[in-house]
């Protein structure tokens, strides 16, 4: 996952720089190294970024599971959403001193995940707008299965002070999607889809539009 996500992120960044040279693209990593979740948010906050895009690959015990989904910081809407957030947040177990870095948060505790979900994102509307655009691009232009826009309490989004999305680009546990995501062509298509959604989002924000207009 880390290699595929990195490759897509670099391709996306290149598209943004090529088409919008005045935009500064800040990467949390440019090589296949692990960056703690809190540091990813810190990098974005320190740079006073206007948008945070987190790229991931999904996985499931069911090898038939397929499709893309884009998440924003918000309330858990179902037990399934809670489980996805729990799995993603468990990444902090790889970090040193995670109890202090995340205010005592324990990713293995269902109660902690439920309490964590009460944090509200003041950028929710903008995040939802971008997420909907990404999913639309994946479905209409790329023909990917659309699993929808979803909300859950992701640590990687929780401390960012700007609109943000977490994109699950497909299931590497699904042989067909694994092949697609592992290919240069597949990664280019995913990056291009995210870029088109970003371009539309940028235009709408600059025109003062919202998802409700």
Walk me through the topology.
Elements: H1 2-19, H2 37-46, E1 52-58, E2 68-73, H3 79-89, H4 98-101, H5 110-116, H6 124-140, E3 146-152, H7 155-158, E4 164-171, H8 175-182, H9 184-206
Parallel strand pairs: 1-4, 2-3
Antiparallel strand pairs: 2-4
Helix pairs in contact: 1-9, 6-9, 8-9
Report on this model:
- It is a single chain.
- The protein has 213 residues and is an alpha/beta fold.
- The protein is built from 9 helices and 4 strands; from the N terminus they run ααββααααβαβαα.
- It has helices at residues 2-19, 37-46, 79-89, 98-101, 110-116, 124-140, 155-158, 175-182, 184-206, and strands spanning 52-58, 68-73, 146-152, 164-171.
- Strands 1-4-2-3 form a 4-stranded mixed β-sheet.
- The longest helix has 23 residues, at 184-206.
- The chain is globular, with a radius of gyration of 16 Å.
Comma- or semicolon-separated keywords:
globular, 213 residues, alpha/beta, 9 helices, single chain
In brief:
With 213 residues, the protein is α/β, with parallel strands linked by helices.
Tell me the total number of β-strands.
4
Order of the strands making up the biggest sheet: 1-4-2-3
How would you spell out the order of helices and strands? HHEEHHHHEHEHH
Q: What structural class do you assign from the helix and strand content? A: alpha/beta
Shape: globular
User: What integer value in Å does the Rg equal?
Assistant: 16 Å
Percent helix, as a range, is 40-55%
Major sheet details: 4 strands, mixed
Which residues sit in consecutive blocks of at least 5 with pLDDT less than 50? none
Beta-strand portion reads 5-15%
Total DSSP helices: 9
Taking the alpha carbons of the first and last residues, their distance comes to: 37 Å
């Amino acid at each position: 996952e880390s290699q595929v996500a990195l490759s897509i992120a670099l391709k996306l960044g290149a598209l943004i720089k090529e088409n919008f040279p005045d935009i500064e693209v800040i990467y949390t990593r440019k090589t296949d190294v692990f960056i703690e979740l809190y540091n990813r948010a810190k990098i974005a906050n320190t740079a006073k970024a206007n948008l945070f895009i987190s790229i991931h690959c999904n996985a499931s015990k069911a090898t038939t599971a397929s499709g893309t989904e884009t998440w924003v910081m918000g309330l858990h809407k179902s037990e399934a959403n809670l489980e996805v957030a729990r799995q993603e947040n468990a990444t902090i177990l790889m970090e040193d001193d995670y109890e202090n870095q995340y205010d005592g948060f324990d990713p293995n505790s269902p109660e902690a995940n439920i309490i964590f979900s009460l944090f509200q994102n003041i950028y929710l509307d903008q995040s939802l707008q971008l997420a909907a655009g990404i999913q639309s691009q994946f479905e209409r232009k790329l023909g990917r299965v659309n699993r929808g826009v979803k909300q859950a309490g992701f640590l990687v989004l929780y401390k960012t002070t700007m609109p943000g999305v977490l994109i699950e680009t497909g299931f590497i546990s699904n042989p067909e999607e694994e092949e697609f995501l592992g290919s240069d062509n597949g990664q280019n298509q995913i990056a291009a889809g995210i870029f088109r959604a970003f371009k539309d989002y940028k235009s709408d924000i600059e025109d003062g539009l919202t998802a409700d207009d």
